[in-house]
Amino acid sequence: MAKHDDIKDEAIRALLATAHQQMRSGKAAGAVRSIADAYLATMARRPAMLEETVELRPGRTMRKVMRWPALGANLDLDSVVAGQPRITFIRDRFAISEAITYYEYAVETALAQGL
Amino acid sequence: MKFGLFYELQLPKPLDADQWDPDAERRIYHEMLEQVELADTLGFDYVFEVEHHFLEEYSHSSAPELMMAALSQRTKNIRLGHGIVLTPPGYNHPARVAERIAALDLLSNGRVEFGTGESSSDMELGGFGVDRGLKKAMWEEATREITNMMVQTPYQGFEGEFFSMPVRNVVPKPLQQPHPPLWVAASRRETTMVAARLGMASLGFGFETPDELGERALEYYRLVREECMPIGHAINPGLAVLSTFMCAPTDEQAVRRSANGPGFFSYSLGYYYNPATGARHQSGRRNIYRDFMNLPLEQRDGRRTLQQARLLSREEIAEREPDDEVQRALFRAARSGQAIGSPATIRSNIKAYEDRNLDVLILTAQAGDRKHEDIMESIDLFGRHVLPEFKERHETHHRRWREQQLAGVEFPINSSI
């Protein structure tokens, strides 16, 4: 079960708790900002994540961190390659379903990284 | 556990020609009608049909509402599932979706399952001018308003980010109240959790294995209980998973008849949904089936399916898999919970889903170059020899488990599960 309460890292847990609260009160855009900060913090704590790859098909791989959903708060590949990950907001408004998608991804990733 | 059939209406091109036989599309449409009629008489619970556009060979099902209307007059009990309707307004105006769903619900005497989704292939997004980066927000806004159109008299009108309309009474209204059960297509774990939080059933198009499903089912129902913010006016808690399907008198016959179905399904799906290939598709010219058949056998026979399911590494596959072709196919089916084999083999393979509390297993029979007569026998054998015991346990065991999961949920529920 992926719950932000189970995250040990205090700062990441607090960001995701804030996001959770924002989602519950319908503030999707604010939630996405908090979640993006949490994901950046996760990558900062675990820089080895940036090098992990997944196989798309034989002979073709992608960096695992790029599975972060591209729903308007997009992870910039060049910044990942440079070791300084950056999330670019290409719009200000987000839907609740988008916030939920980011939240689930961020919580799952933090827990998978043992944070 | 309940059972459904799933249709993309696949139509591989002939190997020796650049276009289909002129009768080919009519034939697969009428074959589907026959298959679903048979399934209805045998007690299958659902049929789900996709809406896809321009994905030649992979899916020729662009107007599922018409197939569903035809089926509504040929079947009695089977529930008619849109798997799914593309609800971003660029594909379908929300009022037109509300009207069509309601009309089908009336025609079918209340048997509609309203599946929703957004698609992600470049051919479809580009064909209709739908912005990839906004499609999820479009889906949410439109789906929410479609449910409002079904319950408000008159619909109060809407000034949204992606569509607007004035006050109008959207008629007819659906027979099922407040509206047919809501589903959303989920090919990623996150979307299943979106479904839970919005009170929708999850149509799992990611071919989850039983092991993946176990944790997901518990988390899904926890979210429905604790964190649901319904998108509609009634919730539809439920998890469905897609599995490939071919039942035959013997295991060997099932493997032979399954043919290239799963392999071509995966290949053509990957082709259209991978931006590197799908975006460059030469409409009307390419022969995807020929490309597929020109691949080396090991790339055609579903080897990657097992890796994608994260069950085995490439080395483990090489080490453990039987050399014999039939035995290898059965080994894979068993490991990933696929419904391929004799009735006894399938019963054993899919029990793992039931043990992990899956609500609905959706079986993909029509795929690749499989033959209609094999699919008919497959439906018949499964319907007579496998389905009854699972349906019985659904009533005696699963229904109780589900009631426990939903204890304390205060939202209205409209669900056929």
Keywords:
heterodimer; A: about 120 residues; alpha+beta; two-stranded antiparallel sheet; 4 helices; 4 strands; globular; B: about 425 residues; alpha/beta; TIM Barrel; eight-stranded parallel β-barrel
What is this entry, summarized?
The complex is a heterodimer of chains A (115) and B (417). Chain A is of the alpha+beta class and 115 residues long.
Number of extended strands of chain A: 4
Helix count, DSSP H or I runs of 4 or more residues of chain B: 18
Helix proportion of chain A: 40-55%
N-to-C SSE string of chain A, H for helix and E for strand: HHEEEHEH
Q: Which whole number gives the mean pLDDT of chain B?
A: 93
Strand order of the largest sheet of chain B: 1-2-3-5-8-9-10-12
N-to-C series of helices and strands of chain B? EHEHEEHEHHEEEHEHEHHHHHHHHEHEHH
Low-confidence stretches of chain B: 303-310
How would you describe the overall organization of this protein?
The complex is a heterodimer of chains A (115) and B (417). The model of chain A has no long low-confidence stretch (mean pLDDT 94). Chain A has helices at 10-24, 28-45, 77-81, 96-112, and strands at residues 53-57, 60-63, 73-75, 87-89. The relative contact order of chain A is 0.22. In chain A, strand 1 (53-57) and strand 2 form a beta hairpin. In chain A, 48% of the residues lie in helices and 13% in strands. Chain A contains 4 helices and 4 strands; from the N terminus they run ααβββαβα. In chain A, the strands form 2 sheets. Chain A has a two-stranded antiparallel sheet with strand order 1-2. Chain B has one domain: TIM Barrel (Alpha-Beta Barrel). Chain B has 18 helices and 12 strands. In chain B, helix 3 packs across helix 5. The longest helix of chain B has 19 residues, at 24-42.
